[in-house]
């Protein structure tokens, strides 16, 4: 009997659009702003079942602070809850309510700090983004991962919104509620894939490291990250950037406005390059002639004047250190060719291991750990010494097990 040709059907099926989830299955709740209703939610969560997906929305790019402006959570037996943390800044009661239940977050390292400000601290967590990275996923946005692993698309589009807006528009609330809608099934699929790949223990170590990570130390010379600063070539110009950056940062912090909305980086760099001698010269430059900047003219020109008055020994160096005395890797070849050779060999070893184990290289071993190891390697750089150094630098046990001997060999051969 002749078999039917199913090629076209298979191709059509493969090309079929992924269904998109546009509304939460249980509807969109109003954000809680009342303490009594929050108490009801805490009581309900106490009787809920299973893990608790949770997410937070900030107003990055609009506000100076990184506080949460909306918290979304969900639990079986309770449903989805949206909370306005401006009206309800203490959510610590939820910790006891869920006990040691696992919290599910996507990119937990982005949200844990602002959740901690509200008193929210997980006893254990599962990070769906990090799980995807350990599985070798290069595209780890929540919508992309839901589509790949669950076959369901998410209605997205408000990730860059100003979440400090009140009241929050309905479509933004839809977006926020959907962020926790699929986290449980996504977590289950990823956990199964991790176990099948022999990576579940890796993931558990990584999740715990994220959960217990201390706050990052203040960045050294944050003004050096001003976009376009590479165009400047003199120490007085860098002093002008530094002065304007700090004047802007102080103003932005006072008013809780993102610094880039107070004064763009391009305007700071142009003012430093042109070195205006008079206030009128400054207002002749792009941006500074606008009405808002004219009102702040004394602040900006005063910063430039203060920078010009600095003695030579107070001018910033052309290149800044990383805060740990280690130069940027791009400068290693000139500063220490042997260290540059070690770094190239170590990076190559990590890259090969990452391909072998189908994990992203940065997740196999952080680039900063590799950098520190290669700048000041142990002596002798044998497997045991490299293993001890990796532990000292914060590598997790699974990372040490996989990378110590290959890195020791790379250091010995370079």
From TrEMBL:
InterPro entries, alphabetized: 3'-5'_exonuclease_dom, Exo_C, HRDC-like_sf, HRDC_dom, HRDC_dom_sf, RNase_D-like, RNaseH-like_sf, RNaseH_sf
One matching Pfam family: HRDC
PANTHER family to which the protein is assigned, alphabetical: RIBONUCLEASE D
Coiled coil: none
Name of the protein this chain belongs to: Ribonuclease D
Region listing for Disordered, in residue ranges: 1-30
CDD domains recorded: RNaseD_exo (cd06142)
HRDC domain boundaries: 234-314
BP GO terms, sorted: nucleobase-containing compound metabolic process
GO molecular function: 3'-5' exonuclease activity; nucleic acid binding; nucleotide binding
Bias kind Acidic residues: ranges: 1-11
Domain of life: Bacteria
């Amino acid at each position: 009997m002749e078999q039917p040709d199913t090629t076209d059907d298979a191709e059509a099926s493969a090309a079929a659009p992924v269904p998109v989830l546009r509304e939460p299955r249980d509807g969109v709740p109003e954000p809680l702003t009342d303490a009594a209703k929050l108490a009801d939610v805490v009581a309900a969560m106490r009787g809920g079942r299973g893990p608790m997906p949770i997410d937070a929305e900030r107003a990055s790019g609009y506000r100076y602070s990184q506080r949460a402006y909306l918290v979304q959570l969900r639990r079986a037996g309770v449903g989805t809850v949206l909370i306005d943390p401006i009206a309800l800044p203490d959510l610590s009661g939820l910790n006891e309510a869920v006990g040691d239940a696992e919290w599910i977050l996507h990119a937990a390292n982005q949200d844990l700090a602002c959740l901690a400000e509200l008193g929210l601290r997980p006893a254990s967590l599962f990070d769906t983004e990090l799980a995807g990275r350990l599985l070798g996923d290069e595209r780890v946005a929540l919508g992309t991962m839901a589509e790949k692993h669950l076959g369901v698309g998410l209605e997205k589009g408000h990730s860059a919104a100003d979440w400090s807006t009140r009241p929050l528009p309905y479509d933004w609330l839809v977006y926020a509620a959907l962020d926790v809608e699929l986290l449980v099934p996504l977590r289950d699929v990823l956990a199964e894939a991790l176990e099948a790949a022999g990576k579940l223990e890796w993931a558990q170590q990584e999740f715990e490291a994220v959960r217990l990570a201390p706050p990052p130390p203040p960045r050294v010379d944050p003004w050096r990250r001003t976009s376009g600063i590479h165009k400047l070539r003199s120490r007085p110009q860098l002093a002008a950037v530094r002065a304007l950056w700090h004047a802007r940062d102080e103003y932005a912090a006072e008013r809780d406005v993102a610094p880039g909305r107070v004064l763009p980086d391009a305007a700071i760099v142009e003012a430093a390059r042109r070195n205006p001698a008079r206030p009128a010269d400054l207002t002749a430059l792009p941006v500074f002639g606008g009405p808002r900047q004219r009102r702040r003219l004394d602040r900006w020109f005063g910063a430039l004047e203060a920078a010009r008055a600095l003695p030579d020994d107070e001018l910033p160096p052309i290149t800044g250190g990383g805060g740990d005395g280690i130069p940027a890797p791009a400068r290693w070849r000139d500063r220490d060719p042997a260290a540059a050779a070690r770094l190239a060999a170590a990076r190559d070893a990590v890259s090969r291991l990452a391909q072998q184990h189908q994990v992203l290289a940065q997740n196999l071993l952080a680039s900063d750990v590799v950098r520190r190891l290669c700048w000041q390697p142990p002596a002798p750089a044998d497997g045991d010494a490299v293993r001890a150094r990796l532990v000292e630098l914060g590598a997790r046990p699974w990372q040490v097990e996989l990378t110590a001997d290959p890195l020791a060999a790379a250091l010995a051969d370079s």
